[in-house]
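Input C-alpha cells:
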C-alpha cells in the first residue's frame, strides 16, 4: 500500500482504497476554510521527552507530533508504541527521525535532549555536556522552522535557554525556558497540602533560577483571592518564618529526592511543558513563571535568562508581569541572577 498525491491510500494495481471504502457524497458543500494545523517537535525522546509527548497527545494539543533523537532504535520503538495507541487518542500524525529535517514547519520545538543529573549532582554540572549538544541541535531546528518558538527543557535550563537564544538568532520572545513553571507547581502542591486546600486555588510563584538559587515569592501568595501573609498579619495570626523556609527548601530538594528514588523526574515536567505548549499554541495569554531574558526587569542588568511570571501566547512571551517583590525577594532574585551569570560568563558565547 502507498499514498497517492492527494493523500488517499492506493492498493495493488493503483486501486484507490479511500474511494473504495467511502462513497463520495453528492452535492456536498465545499469544505469550510481549513482549521489551523499545529506541529510540535520534541527533541530528545528520553524520559522527559516521552512524558511531554504523551501528555501533548492525551491533551489533543497538536495535529502533528515529531520526535527526534540520536538513538534510532529507541526512537522508532517509542514512535511505534505511541502510534499503537491511535484507537484511544485524538487523531494525531506521529513521526520520528534521527534527521532534524523532519521537524520542518514546526510551530513549537521542545528541546529535552541531553545529559541528566545522577543522584546528588546539581543541574549546573550538566552545562558543558549539554552545551556541546545544543551547538549541534539548535541551528538546524531554526533553519527548518524559522517561525518556530523554542521551548527549552534540558538542564541547566536557564543557561541553555540563553545558549539557544544566541545560537538560534531568534528574537528573545520566541525562546523560552520551562524554568520554574515546575518548581511553582511543586510549591503550590506543598502549600495546598499544608493547608488542605486545592493546589489550583493557590496562586504562588517560584522565580529566578530553576535550581538551587530559586526564590519563593511569599509576599504575593494568595489562596482563593486572599493574600495569605498580609491576611495573617492583619489578623495577628503568628506564623513561623522557618515553616516558610522549610517549604521552599522542600521545593528545591524535590528533584534531588525524586532522582534519588526513581533515577529521573518525568511526569510533573511532562504536565508542566504541555501546559506551556497549550498557552503558546492556543494563545491562552496565561501567566506562567518561565525562563525569559530578564535584562531590565527588577533591576537585573545583564543578558541572563531566569524565571519571571510572564504572559504566554502565539507570539511566545507577550510580556512580564509586574508582581510586587519585597526587599528580601528582590535581593534574592538579584543573587540568583548573579549565580547564573557567573557560570554563563565562562561559556564564551
Ligand atoms: N527543566 C526541567 O524542569 C527539567 C529538565 N530535565 C532535563 O531534561 C533532560 C533530559 O532528561 P531525561 O529525559 O531524563 O534524560 P534521558 O537520558 O532519558 O534522555 C535524553 C535523550 O536525549 C537524547 N539525545 C542525546 N543527544 C541528542 C541529540 N544530539 N539530539 C537528539 N537527542 C539526543 C538521548 O538519546 C536520550 O534519549 C536533562 O538535561 C534533564 O536534566 C529533566 C526534568 C525536568
Ligand atoms: C530534573 C529537574 O530539573 C527537575 O525535576 O526539576
Amino acid at each position: 500500500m502507498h499514498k497517492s498525491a492527494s493523500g488517499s491510500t492506493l492498493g495493488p494495481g493503483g486501486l484507490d482504497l479511500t474511494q473504495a471504502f467511502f462513497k463520495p457524497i453528492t452535492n456536498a458543500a465545499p469544505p469550510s476554510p481549513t482549521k489551523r494545523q499545529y506541529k510540535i517537535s520534541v527533541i530528545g525522546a528520553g524520559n522527559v521527552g516521552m512524558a511531554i509527548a504523551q501528555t501533548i497527545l492525551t491533551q489533543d494539543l497538536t495535529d502533528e507530533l515529531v520526535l527526534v533523537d540520536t538513538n534510532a532504535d529507541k526512537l522508532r520503538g517509542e514512535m511505534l508504541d505511541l502510534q499503537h495507541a491511535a484507537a484511544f487518542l485524538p487523531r494525531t500524525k506521529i513521526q520520528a527521525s534521527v534527521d532534524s529535517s523532519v521537524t520542518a514547519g514546526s510551530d513549537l520545538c521542545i528541546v529535552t535532549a541531553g545529559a541528566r543529573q545522577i543522584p546528588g549532582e546539581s543541574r549546573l554540572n550538566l552545562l558543558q555536556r549539554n552545551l556541546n549538544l545544543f551547538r549541534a541541535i539548535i541551528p538546524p531546528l531554526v533553519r527548518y522552522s524559522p517561525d518556530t518558538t523554542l521551548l527549552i527543557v534540558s538542564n541547566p535550563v536557564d543557561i541553555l535557554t540563553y545558549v539557544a537564544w544566541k545560537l538560534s538568532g531568534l528574537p528573545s520572545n520566541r525562546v523560552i525556558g520551562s524554568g520554574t513553571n515546575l518548581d511553582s507547581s511543586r510549591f503550590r502542591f506543598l502549600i495546598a497540602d499544608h493547608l488542605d486546600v486545592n493546589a489550583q486555588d493557590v496562586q504562588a510563584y517560584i522565580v529566578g533560577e530553576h535550581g538551587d538559587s530559586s526564590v519563593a515569592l511569599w509576599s504575593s501568595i494568595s489562596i482563593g483571592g486572599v493574600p495569605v501573609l498580609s491576611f495573617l498579619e492583619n489578623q495577628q495570626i503568628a506564623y513561623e518564618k522557618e515553616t516558610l523556609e522549610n517549604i521552599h527548601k522542600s521545593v528545591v530538594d524535590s528533584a534531588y529526592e525524586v532522582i534519588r528514588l526513581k533515577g529521573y523526574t518525568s511526569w510533573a515536567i511532562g504536565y508542566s511543558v504541555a501546559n506551556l505548549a497549550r498557552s503558546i499554541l492556543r494563545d491562552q495569554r496565561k501567566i506562567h513563571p518561565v525562563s525569559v531574558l530578564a535584562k531590565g526587569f527588577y533591576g537585573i542588568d545583564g543578558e541572563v535568562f531566569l524565571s519571571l511570571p510572564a504572559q504566554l501566547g502565539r507570539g511566545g512571551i507577550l510580556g512580564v508581569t509586574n508582581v510586587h517583590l519585597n526587599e528580601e525577594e528582590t535581593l534574592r532574585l538579584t543573587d540568583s541572577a548573579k549565580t547564573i551569570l557567573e557560570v554563563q560568563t565562562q561559556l564564551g558565547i
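Residues 120 and 256 are 6 Å apart (CA to CA). The chain has a mean pLDDT of 93.
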